[in-house]
Prior knowledge:
Layout: H1 5-15, E1 21-26, E2 29-34, E3 37-43, E4 47-51, H2 57-61, E5 66-68, E6 80-83, H3 91-107
Antiparallel strand pairs: 1-2, 2-3, 3-4, 4-6, 5-6
Helix pairs in contact: 1-3
Amino acid sequence: MAYDERLAARIREVISARPDVVERKMFGGLGWMIGGNMACGVMREDHLVVRIDPDETAALVSEPHVSEFGAPGRKPMRGFVVIDPLALEDDAALADWVDRGAARAASMPPKS
């Protein structure tokens, strides 16, 4: 399954304003890393995956178009949420999610 190139370009435009961003193909999509920590990615064709503080998960998944990240039938991956394309139509909403993921990744110890 291919990822949405248009969504990837929109994410790239927002996240490229930050220093030390690395784009990498992963999980059949694209991920953007800061300090070696994934900030966000485009996966499942046209969904945005965002790194968050794990303690925010319950509050965020109660919002419309936000769900836990993980394979069906398996335990969700802590510290990540998936944003449905309906919540990303507005550029400001996309920028808010990308910035949230970038801030979380930048706050973590760098990986070598």
